[in-house]
């Protein structure tokens, strides 16, 4: 087993610092942040742990090597010099995928086949195999990513992207990626015992991610990972990571999370998704239009992804929704409001300048995350239920 491994948690543009904070919170140090990724060097047990726990990363990759490559010869020799046998078993199946941006080696199929040949040669020599490699065993997806003549060789440890938590059995028209929903919650200062509402909840992603965060449930608890079958990690480390996740979950933490949407079908879908996530009836779901929102408690949080009004015929309606929300929330100054939208005039319809704005990409859509900080009321305990 290699003593140390360097892992790369990949991140959507704009979420790198949030992913880095999560990595640090798991106890890993010397975290390096680059565009679209976070790197850290640690022991092998971090592979199961980060896959299970990271809420905002897209996937976790194992870095095998990083070097300058301006010729195919160089790519071949440098790849062959890397210790692939430390990770890939004698019978391992290892397809090679690739990408190349702003580099001399721009033919991706050629780069892929050169990397494949170099790894085959290395493994045959190390395992003393004269004929071909069987490739009938565990699966290792190797990637060669070349950017400005620097090659990054990685093996994907996650399998499907980490946003696939395993709970989304249904979805609406424009569901938010689970990783992005978790980031929206983490950007707020919400604490699990405070009221939390998504009045445009759709299939419930934000509210479900908040509940998972609130009870400290590992987001990967319900799924499988590509590296579960890798012998250099071993079953014991995976069992340990799943045991840790079970121990750290705080199923007794009370939550006051509500998701509402105008569409009754979506409320059914959200309910089913929450059940699938193992949350039972922990989240309250309600069919309601956002303009009927009437919080009954203090110090709550609205975290939401309303329609953006990108289609012209929806624009007026969406702008009226923003205006209504602004008017309602004026009466609840202790509430903090967080809205993700691509509508550039959101603040003027909402009727107030955001305390803070953060640029984020929702898939390919450029959005802003408008953040309004509530003025907390400290000394007034309230026993009301509902919102
Ligand atoms: C962008 S989607 C939210 C997607 C959600 N974040 C998810 O992950 O599934 C916006 C939602 O707003 C809902 N909606 C539209 N007009 C509404 C209104 N006036 N009141 C409440 N919900 C509304 C739509 O039904 C849709 O589900």
Overview of the molecule:
With 387 residues, this protein is of the alpha/beta class. Helix content is 30%, strand content 21%. The chain is built from ten helices and 14 strands. It has helices spanning 16-25, 46-53, 72-80, 108-127, 178-187, 205-214, 235-248, 264-276, 315-330, 346-350, and strands spanning 5-10, 32-34, 37-42, 59-68, 96-101, 141-147, 150-156, 196-198, 257-261, 283-287, 301-304, 336-341, 356-362, 365-372. The strands form two sheets. A seven-stranded mixed beta sheet has the order 2-3-1-4-7-6-5. The chain has a seven-stranded mixed beta sheet with strand order 10-9-8-11-12-14-13, covered by helices on one side. Strand 5 (96-101), helix 4 and strand 6 (141-147) form a beta-alpha-beta unit. Helix 2 runs parallel beside helix 7 (235-248), helix 3 runs parallel beside helix 4 (108-127) and helix 5 (178-187) packs across helix 6 (205-214). The mean pLDDT is 96. Bound molecules: S-adenosylmethionine. S-adenosylmethionine (SAM) is lined by residues 171-172, 174-176, 199-200, 202-203, 205-206, 261-263, 266, 289-290, 305-307, 321.
């Amino acid at each position: 087993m290699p003593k140390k491994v360097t892992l790369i948690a990949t991140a959507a543009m704009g979420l790198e610092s949030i992913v880095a904070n999560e990595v640090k919170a798991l106890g890993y140090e010397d975290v390096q942040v680059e565009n679209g990724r976070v790197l850290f060097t640690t022991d092998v047990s971090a592979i199961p742990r980060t896959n299970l726990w990271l809420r905002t990363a897209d996937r976790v990759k194992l870095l095998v090597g990083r070097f300058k490559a301006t010729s195919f010869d160089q790519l071949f020799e440098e790849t062959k010099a890397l210790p692939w046998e430390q990770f890939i078993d004698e019978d391992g199946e290892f397809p090679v995928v690739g990408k190349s941006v702003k580099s001399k080696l721009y033919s991706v199929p050629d780069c892929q086949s050169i990397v494949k040949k170099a790894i085959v040669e290395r493994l045959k020599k190390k395992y003393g195999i004269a004929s071909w490699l069987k490739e009938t065993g565990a699966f290792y997806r190797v990637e060669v990513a070349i950017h400005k003549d620097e090659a990054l060789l990685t093996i994907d440890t996650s399998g499907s992207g980490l946003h696939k938590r395993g709970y989304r059995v249904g979805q609406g028209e424009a569901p938010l990626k689970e990783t992005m929903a978790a980031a929206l919650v983490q950007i707020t200062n919400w604490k699990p015992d405070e009221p939390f509402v998504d009045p445009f909840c759709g299939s419930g992603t934000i509210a479900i991610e908040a509940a998972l965060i609130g009870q400290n449930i590992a987001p990967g608890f319900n799924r499988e990972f590509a590296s579960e079958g890798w012998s250099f990690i071993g079953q014991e480390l995976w069992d340990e990571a799943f045991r840790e996740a079970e121990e750290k979950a705080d199923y007794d933490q009370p939550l006051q999370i509500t998701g509402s949407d105008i569409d009754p079908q979506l409320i059914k879908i959200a309910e089913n998704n929450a059940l699938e996530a193992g949350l039972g009836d922990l989240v309250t779901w309600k069919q309601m239009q956002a303009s009927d929102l009437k919080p009954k408690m203090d110090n709550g949080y609205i975290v939401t992804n309303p329609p953006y009004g990108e289609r012209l015929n929806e624009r007026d309606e969406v702008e009226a929704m923003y205006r209504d929300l602004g008017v309602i929330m004026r009466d609840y100054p202790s509430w903090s409001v967080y809205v993700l939208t691509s509508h550039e005039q959101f603040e003027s319809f909402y009727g107030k300048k955001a305390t803070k704005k953060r640029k984020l990409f929702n898939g390919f859509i450029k959005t802003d995350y408008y953040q309004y900080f509530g003025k907390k009321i400290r000394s007034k305990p309230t026993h009301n239920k509902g919102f």
